[in-house]
Amino acid sequence: MKKIYAIALLGLMVLGMAATASAADIKASGKWQIEATMQNADFLKDGAASSEDKQFNIEQRVRTAFQFIANENLKGVLDLQIGSANWGTGAMGIGAGRAAATSASSSANNAGSGNIMLRKGYVDFKWPGTKVNFLVGYQTVSLPAAFGGGSAIIDDQVAAAVMVAPLTDNIKLLAGYARPYDSNSAYATTASTLSGDGTSADVVFAALPIDFKGFNITPFGMYANIGSQAAGSVTGGTALPGLASGNSTAGAGARAYWGGVAATVTALDNFKFMGDFNYGKATYNQATGSGGNGGRQGWMADIAVDYTGLKMMTPSAFFVYSSGEKGNSTDGATDGSNRMPSLGNPQNWAVGSFFFGDRNFINPVPASAGYVQRVMGFWTAGVSLKDIKLIDKMSHTAHLLYVRGTNDKDSVKEDGGNNINTANFMNYGGYLTTKDSLWELDFNTKYMIYDELAVNLDLGYINASFDKDVWGQSSKTAAADYQNFSKSDAYSARLGVAYSF
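^ thats the sequence. predicted structure below, dont judge the formating
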């Protein structure tokens, strides 16, 4: 009889667990990609510096997200990633947690290889009896942007708490707190010996989306306090790509703020106008060295127009300008860098689909020559023909753009502090002076085998002109190569399949 009771009790427990599990509806989504890439994107024909010449790789990345929905007011989001990894490296072996790291400089987008990596893990809920929404946990934080695909200031997966509150039918308040860096972290494989407030970066931000029929405008602001060890032992945020400058030292903290506005106008029939203005300033708290208080400040603006009156394509024209370095990159306490600072890795901002990156592919260009925080100090103008539809299930996009630097040619001659001779501050092929320019031509094709499965073929070509005298007299360690060897045009051919569900 006791056995019967025990079996019955066990059965009730199983039924209870099943009932509990079914209390939340589960929805899965994701994007699984396998891509073959052949490219030359280092812009140098010969010499020791031409390390990335004629690469051919096959890469794989698996992203899978789950929503655990309790009701219309409460859900949890879990987004996981395996890869990116090259075929042949054996790196797709699944391990536990993030990839080996000993510092906080590894963000969600560059941590992990074969390991299962957490991209997002947060709770999304409304406060009872209100329309105020909260998102708390590891999530994507991106400031508003009308053009470019994402913010050029911050657009990354970070730990954050965000509130979205409707003020009227047309106006919302978005506010939040984030911690993008903390070197005293349990995820590092080596036990951290750091302590104190200087190991973290704390960020607060707010935006005010104003949306009416025919137009929307969103002003925003953000403030960050970045510790002198936020990126590792005696390594502050000033060593990271978006904050480094010629007069910064590794062990420095920073106080930074940003402000701007994003606007979109659709009031005119068949036209969509987009525009952004971003400004940022970072003041260094120099912990070591003799540079005193350094800094970095600059701005970036863009304007674009789409013509939406055609069924077979959408023509677009755009112009982007960002401030660049002055002639003396070691202006010291008063001027410092004249490029706009950024946080993390702004992963989605791009024009064209080659030099600035491509949101459709895994690793389109070497990081030192791509991504907006590394090439800041440029202007570009271009045209695109988007979503060209001539054959059923097939679409094309074409880009033609001209890019020129806004950094003074003499800025590459300065020795500066610890960062000027690194890819974090200036890199041949990414950092453009007023004597450097390039033309880019892209033609991209997508064919939908099924509604969820696409084959992508992207072709890109860059004709670059980098001044040999400017770079040959620079402070870069490879200056002799830049002086003695000719520049190389860049090309890229990428073929891949993407399963999106």
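Confidence is low (pLDDT under 50) at residues 1-19, 95-113, 287-291.
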